[in-house]
Specification:
The strands form two sheets. The protein has an eight-stranded mixed sheet with strand order 1-2-9-6-11-5-4-3. Strands 8-7-10 form a three-stranded antiparallel sheet, with no helix packed on it. The chain contains ten helices and eleven strands. The protein starts with 9 loop residues before the first strand and ends in a 13-residue tail after the last helix. By secondary structure, the chain is an alpha+beta fold. The protein folds into two domains: 249 residues, q2cbj1_9rhob like domain (Jelly Rolls, Sandwich), CATH 2.60.120.620; 59 residues, no CATH class. The longest helix is centred in the C-terminal third of the chain and has 33 residues. 36% of the residues are buried. Strand 3 and strand 4 form a beta hairpin.
Length: 357
């Protein structure tokens, strides 16, 4: 992420807290357009370190619960309880990123995933994928989703006229191209209509330690959460998908400890090959809007008893209350310290008469 000119979807947590409504709307617009937003310093390093220790201890104890993940060899996803250090990290995400998340999924969005993704040294790269996508029937039934009276009709007419002028030599090939274009238009319209009806889902990936390029950071392709990209990529094999995405600009999220990558669940991405000697671990928290039906394809990596129990707004309020309590406690400690200093100082009353002449 070492850009000379930072992209509009790279921001600090402090900048988000200082956003006025206009700036917040602009930032949310950049997020909606790119499908990704990198938030610097979203979680304190000490909280991240404690969270990482909790994940590793649970793994070592043999009591961890896991869920399926793409390319599982040397890669795993551990389901987490929102307790202790994990909850503190979750509250940090709500406090630092909640304003942007609320713009996208709403304050009543449910926590639908809470896990830790680990990539061990030697892990192979994942195939490019989106966590949520189109249900198979959308493209199969795309011909029924909308009419075809659009600009392609004009193009069809001009091609037919050209065929006649050429004596019809290319008529069969041209007819095939026209049919493919109409089918592509119908598929795109069907996909757009489907995505409009689906509840938005956003995932926060928090780096629990510094992530170097050698550790195989998450690679993202901004803008590929659009329906047109899903129409184009879903029916391709791995090689063709890689080639199609190779021509589009991508970014590796080699971020620092405490940085958070917010990602639209439809964005195409993948974990890289871990060529280092260190384990890469990300805290994962996804929030699902109540506006629409749940998206297709997600593993919904959440312990069953947590379903429907936590909301973005609730976590934001809890984080705010804790911050206020911390400020109050700090003020109390400061006042106590001043009182002690005044009690113990031999010149504690000099300031009361220092203005006398």
């Amino acid at each position: 992420m070492s850009e000379a000119t930072p992209p509009p979807w790279l921001v600090s947590a402090k900048a988000i807290r200082q956003c006025d409504p206009t700036a917040l709307a602009e930032l949310s617009g950049a997020f909606s357009e790119a499908g990704v937003l990198v938030v610097r310093a979203a979680c304190a390093p000490a909280v991240c370190a404690a969270c990482l220790d909790a994940v590793n201890q649970r793994k070592a104890s043999g009591s961890a619960v896991y869920t399926p993940i793409h390319e599982p060899a040397l890669r795993e996803e551990q389901l987490l309880e929102p307790l202790g250090a994990v909850r503190r990290a979750l509250l940090a995400v709500a406090a630092s990123c909640g304003a942007v998340l609320s713009q996208r999924v709403g304050p009543d969005a449910e926590l639908c995933e809470l896990s830790a993704i680990t990539s061990e040294p030697g892990a192979a790269p994942q195939r490019q994928h989106a966590d949520t996508t189109l249900e198979p029937w959308v493209l199969e039934d795309g011909s029924d989703a909308s009419d075809t009276s659009d600009a392609s009709d004009t193009s069809d007419a001009s091609e037919e006229a050209e065929d006649r002028s050429n004596g019809g030599a290319d008529e069969q090939a041209s007819a095939g191209r026209r049919a493919a274009r109409r089918r592509g238009t119908r598929d795109r319209r069907a996909a757009e209509m489907y995505f409009e009806a689906v509840a938005p889902m956003v995932t926060a990936f928090v780096a629990l330690r510094d992530i170097s390029v050698a550790m195989g950071p998450t690679r993202v392709w901004p803008g590929t959460h659009a329906a047109a990209w899903h129409c184009r990529l879903l029916n391709l094999d791995a090689a063709a998908t890689s080639e199609a995405l190779r021509l589009r600009r991508s970014f590796d999220c080699d971020v620092r400890q405490g940085d958070c990558v917010l990602m639209d669940s439809r964005l195409w991405h993948c974990g890289g090959a871990n060529q280092s000697d260190a384990r890469r671990t990300l805290l994962v928290a996804s929030f699902l809007s109540r506006d629409g039906h749940p998206p297709y394809g997600s593993t919904y990596s959440l312990l069953e008893h947590l379903t429907g129990q936590l909301t973005l707004g609730g976590l934001m309020r809890e984080a705010e209350a804790e911050a206020e309590a911390d400020v109050g406690a700090a003020a109390g400690v400061g006042a106590k310290r001043v009182a002690c200093e005044e009690r113990d100082s031999p010149v504690k009353r000099v300031h009361l008469v220092s203005n006398e002449v």
